[in-house]
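Task card 7
Instruction: Convert sequence to structure tokens.
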Amino acid sequence: MKFSNSLVLLSTLALSISPVRAQTAPPLDAASRQLAHDVFKQLVEINTTESVGSTTVAAEAMAKRFLNAGFPASDVHVLVPSQDAMGKRKGDLVVRYRGKADSKLKPFLIICHLDVVEAPRNTWNTDPFKFIEKDGYYYGRGTQDMKDSDAIMVTNLIRLKKEGYVPDRDIILALTAAEEGGSWNGVQWLMEHHRDLVDADFALNPDSGGVTTENGKPMEMDVEATEKLYADFELTATNPGGHSSVPTRENAIYEVSDALGRLEKYTFPFELNAVTRAYFKQMATIEKGQRAQDMLAILKTPPDPAAIERLSDDPHYNSTMRTTCVATMFSAGQARNALPQLAQANVNCRILPGYSQEEIRQKLIGIFNDPKLKVQYVDDSGVYHDRGTDRKSMQPPPVKQEVFDPLHKVVNEVWPGMPVVPVMETGASDSVHTMAAGIPSYGISGVAIDENDDRAHAVNERVGVESYYTGVQFYYLYLKALTGGK
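Output:
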């Protein structure tokens, strides 16, 4: 089935459901709730940042939990790249939950990254590596991105094991390193070096998608159907410098800042694809008033420019409609009393499907319009290149009924009437590596985040306490629904 037809199917299924009613799924039992709490706390309090942390420590801690729950050692693998220059800190965990011995069904894979972005203590109100409950939230680095999902998967596989549950196929869980950046991306490395352990019919990635709420009210379940392409570009200006008592416009800082000013004023063209068109079509049934009208207006041929402009005022909708590039880091100068000889800025881009990193690098060169500036592509290992890659964002996978029929069933059980909406992830995730390996991948998460409380990568990251436990129960029910369970 082509994805465009599948989007129509998704739209029909979503819109046929009645308005969202109160949650009706059975609550977590006390023992499972305690397990979910303890696993989450343990993971948050293990520092897994690129600078000083270790995903190996986290992988080993979770491996011990699986072994203690009765998983055979032959199905629990802590894997560390032998070339790991970070002191064996980039470990991955792969766990296989065995299904029926005579099953003809290929396993499915769940990918969750263990690493988190940096969290300077002086910018937080709490210690980012202490699991703190306050005012109905759990605080700590990774509570949204994505140790909540790591803990959910570990908890639920252990729950199922304790129940003696036998799925109709094997379930593979990979807890991995360096999704947030670094020299050893765990999913990519596993696909290249341990494909036998992670080969699957399809993959689920809870790092994408999820339940959006508005002031606590569930609005929609987003399912990642495609994603943007990530790219970093380094903008460099060099200058002979001079004494600061004789200022001049021949100044490396001015050259870079002028270029960034031109980038700030530039708007990449409006563009929709099959996924984002389906997204706005469904969102028009959820939104109200002018915003709903604008969503329908941008779907017309030609789209309404005024509607595009109004929707672009919302950063999320803006990034859904176009490629975005923004300066994220700046460094310059060699002395307080000297004109800077070197200035550099990192420009981070999230590129719409259909465009390569090199195409966007060339576009940036045109926007900066300064032949004295050097614009280089920076790969995931931090190596500079005078040319970007020709890689483009992944094409949307086919919509497998075996994935989406159970999804609609469980979503309607947990959040009756809530629509399932296909989305383009405006960030980036490890799905790019599973998709490149030929494994259809879907971003599905059951943790609800309020539209005004997205704190992934931000200070004081947090997740609602009950939102987390509902996410635990959602995936418990979904794993059973996916594997023939009741």
